[in-house]
Amino acid sequence: MHHSLRYRAHIDGLRAIAVLGVVLYHFGAKWLPGGFVGVDVFFVISGYLICKSIYADVAEGRFSLLAFYERRIRRIAPAFLAVTAVTAIAAALILLPYQMLIFGRSVLWSVFAVGNIFFYQRTDYFAPAAQEMPLLHYWSLAVEEQFYFLFPAVVLLLNRFGRRALVIGVLVLFVASLAASQLMLTRDPAAAYFLLPFRAFEMLIGAALALPGVRFSQKPAECAAAVLGGCAMILGTMLMLKASSPFPGLRALTPCVGAALVIWGGEGVATLGTRALGSRPMVFVGKISYSLYLAHWPIVALVKEWLGPVAPLPFLVGGVALSLLLGFLSWRFVEQPVRLNRRLFTPKVLVGTTLAGTLVLAVFAQIAIATRGLPQRLSPEAQRLAAYAFYNGDPVFRQGVCFTPFFLAEYKAKPECLPTRHPSVMVWGSSHIAHFITAILAAGEARGYDVGQITGAACPPVSERYARVVPYCREMNLFARKWVEENKPDILVLGGLSVATPDLDEAIAEFVRLGIRVVVVGPVPLYRDAVPKLLARRIEAGDPSTDAGSDALPGARTSDKTLAAHFATMPGVTYISVFDAACGNADCPLMVEGEPLQHDSSHFTMAGARFFGRPVSELIFGSPAK
């Protein structure tokens, strides 16, 4: 018989803190920028409760892998399958074909508990935004299930060598995973975030706390200090940690150790902290936390797709309220009946219905994939425009040739990207200058210039401050600066800037002193969503207009004016406004002669490279072609 654990109200309260942090963060609570660490708190809670049960069963010689997996299926599968099915129906009504294709792939990977690997593979600079993937939050479920698929076997193996081996084994695995996570932050941040080896240490903190022989204090002062201190660590991280900070690694220890302290202190005597955590509202949210977590992110993703921009406060309040309602309904009518009514939901019935539900979702996913997103749902013109979301922008940037893709570990200069004769032009910066390269090459060659390119995704020129997020950026910019100073191109074109910084000004002044003509190309038009999607949505709504209108983000023009005024005071520098060069005082168009000018919210198609690139290139060279 399985060893059941006694109920712990304070742990339900801790679950409430964790899930509310995640939900509020995802619905746009700017005052809680680190709310996403609620997932890490969940990992610790899960590690503690499940591993404590495993240890007890193994120690008493009654642990069964089949029974363990049956309990996992009973706990996880019903709500997971129900929420996924409802989300799939809503997605089919709302999403455009390319989004539906990605959704189908995410369903297929998620139902087989490897969704985290799929989402890791989607962390490319030009990949869809997070809000276009309604099942993105399933990555954490996959990490947990992978851990519990492996960890029981590890416990069984270590237990053969005695309790000491189990303790040492858990601690060694914890240290190895934490060290690997911290190391991977500098090599492949997406892997550190999504993959099990670099997240396992969080569950292992809970597993370590659950080890036989761990002492739990019975002193009120110690217990109170642990609970309040742990809550402070969790809430402090939620309030102060920024989403742009490298994570998890060592930074994850603060909320994880905080969660462990709350659990440890709450296992002793009752205190003010445990009574607060065990209050009815906290316990209620804690009990529905799993269903609430499942339901909230599809609402975040699909409501924005369905309604477009929503005012922040109504979105936050309405979204949280709707999530709580749907989370409660899933808990009450799906989770609870399956967990409590074992006469009806016998192991055979449970496994059979789980396999059937998984098969149905997998078939649906395969149909969405095979048809490339069920495009028949749209009119022919909307289908044509939406298909630009599949646009291959690599040739526009010369990606893989002279453009470094996102998250590459290191920068490698290629000789074919560096000019070897004069007159010469060097193009240096991020993707927002790289997508001008085809036009600059054509204009330069027509005038006898040798054109070079040192560009990388999300890496503006000169600055090294992006190196924490973009590993190759520092190396690329150091190489570029050294090359420019040693080879002195006749024209240096910088782009991908949103602000001017002192280090940029200092570098430009040095380039001008060396006799180099410096050209700064300003920001490109930015839109609230991918241009093909905006156009397709307009067609479906009966709106044939192709001007930017309210879909343009005003920040790009504001930044353009600020940069123009700044560089106007710098001798030897030519500033080119993309807006003025290509659009004048009018709105920039989204489409010209039937072709969208951008394939996402900012990056050019070849049509866009021609439309914006030709007038900009003429201003770069400032002289007619020979």
From TrEMBL:
A GO cellular component entry from the record: membrane
Pfam families: Acyl_transf_3, SGNH
Transmembrane segments: 12-29, 35-55, 76-98, 165-185, 191-211, 223-240, 252-272, 284-303, 309-329, 349-369
Residue ranges occupied by any SGNH domain in the UniProt entry: 415-614
Any one Gene Ontology BP term: lipopolysaccharide biosynthetic process
All copies of domain Acyltransferase, residue ranges: 11-331
Any one GO molecular function term: acyltransferase activity, transferring groups other than amino-acyl groups
Keyword line: Acyltransferase, Membrane, Transferase, Transmembrane, Transmembrane helix
Name listed for the protein in its UniProt record: Acyltransferase
The organism of origin for this protein: Ancylobacter polymorphus
